[in-house]
Amino acid sequence: MPDNLSIARLVEELEQRQRREWPLVRSNYDAVDNAMVRDLWLGESLVVLQYNPQRRASASASLDAASLAARPCFLCRDHQPVEQEALEWGGGEFKIQVNPYPIFSRHLTISLTEHSPQSMANPHRVVDMLSLARDLPDYVLFYNGPLCGASAPHHFHFQAALKGVMPLCREVMNPAVWPDENQLEGTDDGFIGFSKREGRFLFMIKSTQPVQAALYFARLQVAMMQATGVAAEPMQNLLCWAEGDDLYLVVFPRRKHRPDCYGTGPGKLLVSPGSTEMGGLWALAERKDFDTITADVLRHLYDEICIDNHMAVRIIECFQQESFQKK
Predict the structure, then answer these.
(1) Residue 208 belongs to some domain of the structure
(2) Is residue 265 part of a domain?
(3) Is 118 inside any structural domain?
(4) How far apart are CA 110 and CA 113, in angstroms?
(5) CA dist 222 → 33, 151, 152, 211, 286 (Å)
(6) Which of 47, 85, 247, 240 shows the shortest CA–CA distance to 159?
(7) Structural domain of residue 169, as residue ranges?
(8) What secondary structure letter does DSSP report for 9?
(9) 3 inside domain
(10) Burial class for 275, CB neighbours closer than 10 Å (0-12, 13-18, 19+)
(11) E strand map for the chain
(12) Can you give the pLDDT of all 327 residues of the chain as single tens digits?
């Protein structure tokens, strides 16, 4: 496998080549570079709104089993445009590609080469995510659960964007966010803690050791399943990045896929929140939504789709109970 700098260089060359040689990519990335944006403040948390009409297909995608079965998987090689190139990663298990319908000025999709459902149940997947964050140190990776923003829940994939585009990442790296009382467990190598940032309850794992971070994540998954009473992967969004020797993994437990106001027309918003929205960037396909959404509307949306305080306490209790039993 190439070293980190070689992988980063190959990715950059892939992005430049696709933008230069693929007219669809060039047009869509030019549009993102010139997209209208505006800032909203939710207390001390910054949220950026982006007007991005090309995201309509993703935001309006039907994700029921019948609809998914009826359409070709756009992450499988046989159904991709001939212009779409891929860079192998992880011994060929994954492919890194330029996302042709971007939210960011540099937007990658990293998917399994083989068709396999979107799920973090396989413990190797979080290790893959942490390893990829190390290999792409200029990027933040994100994962949308199959019922939390993934437009291809039938094919496992991460996505990646350059650091700095999601305001929450900078916010949670502030040590003041993580006083001792917000830390569930820790060692000299890192910790797992919890916080609430303007309606978004989150858990954050910080560690210099990928294996330690993966163990914290596995135990958190068990606690979330116990608290919610589900046997499958809990509803969640993930953000992951490397900063020097430190790895950061942020988990947003969810309780709802789309808000009650989802849709088009008067009184509706075409919003299907995923990891980017949890991270503080809302890509809006409709101009009316971009023009009219306020800080109060965003607070309501976060409160509706994220877990409430009662569920947060329940997850923490389950995690602490598991920790006690292991001692």
Answers:
(1) yes
(2) yes
(3) yes
(4) 9
(5) 41, 25, 25, 17, 38
(6) 240
(7) 36-72+114-326
(8) H
(9) no
(10) buried
(11) 37-42, 45-51, 87-89, 94-98, 107-112, 139-144, 157-162, 183-187, 190-197, 200-207, 236-243, 246-253, 281-284
(12) 455 568 999 999 999 999 999 999 999 999 999 999 999 999 999 999 999 988 776 666 566 666 666 678 999 999 999 999 999 999 999 999 999 999 999 999 999 999 999 999 888 999 999 999 999 999 999 999 998 988 888 999 999 999 999 999 999 999 999 999 999 999 888 999 999 999 999 999 999 999 999 999 999 999 999 999 988 899 999 999 999 999 999 999 999 999 999 998 889 999 999 999 999 999 999 999 999 999 999 999 999 999 999 999 999 999 998 765 554
Domain total of the chain: 1
**Two tokens at 17?**
């080549």
Instruction: Give bridge partners of residue 193 from the DSSP assignment.
Output: 183, 204
β-bridge pairing 183-187 and 107-112: unpaired
Side-chain-facing half-sphere of 149: CA atoms under 13 Å: 28
Q: Using the structure block, give the residue that is written with the tokens 């990891």.
A: 275
